[in-house]
Amino acid sequence: MESIVDLYDKHITQNADPRIRDWPLMPSIVPSVVITALYLVFVLVMPRVMQNKPALNLQIPIVLYNFGMVLFSFYIFIEILMAGWLTDYSVFGCQPVDYSDSANGVRMARACWLFFISKYVELSDTVFFILRKKNSQVTFLHVFHHGALPIFWWFGVKIVPGGFGTFHTMVNAFVHTVMYFYYGVSALGPRYRKYLWWKRYITILQLTQFFIVTLHNSQLLFVRCDNYPVIFAIAIQGFTSSVAVLFLNFYIKTYMTNQQHGKVEQNGLAQNGHITQNGDVHSKMKYH
Predict the structure, then answer these.
(1) Given the residues 145, 146, 168, 176, the one annotated as active site
(2) What is the number of other CB atoms lying within 10 angstroms of the CB of residue 50?
(3) Residue ranges making up the domain that contains 173
(4) 176 in active site
(5) Is residue 3 part of a domain?
(6) Does residue 245 lie within any of the structural domains?
(7) Which one, 5, 8, 139, 174, has least CB within 10 Å?
(8) Is residue 102 part of a domain?
(9) Whole-model pTM?
């Protein structure tokens, strides 16, 4: 029976992209696993530490964080667009990974690595929740997505930093740009709520993302893509589908069921959605 080390060498080391071998966090999966483990320890321990302490007022850090993520996400979106999807790539059929040292090939790999790094930056979502004693937002789904995605993306960047799967990355980076802008405006305080009339369209945007990514991924049912392992498309689809179901349920309850009973929030903030009545940012259903 092959050992874990043998399997790792067979499937990861031998298939790794040599261009990113020495990039930060990429030589080994160990640092990523350690960071994720520390994140889980924080999730388990800090709520108890904060139990008898007052919630921290983190409005300024949250505002800066959100608008910082707007810039970061938009930059990633533009890089992926310019490195492939607006130049050499096609949304139809298999899009192979460019493993060469060409300008666009390296640019796409770097954009994928930045997206991977952004998954660790987004662990701050949970930190803000817990330090502000908003523990109800730290659901299993929230922790699962925040904890699992960095590990998943390590494998993605290590083996396939480009190609077919970056369509999802590009779309997701754009959605994050819009969402973090919404969260940032909300975090500014109640007087800015009048500018959040478009909250309903955030959920529609998430659902649209699901359908676009699903439609794109479905092409692999009909075409071969030897250069891009189908397991990555399946994993992307799994993450997308699980959260899409929750967003659809949220949309139906908030904008359809509640409208029938006249219970839609008038202050533009949904209790179980992206924003709560007191201006909390980052929903437990936030998609990554």
Answers:
(1) 145
(2) 16
(3) 17-260
(4) no
(5) no
(6) yes
(7) 5
(8) yes
(9) 0.83
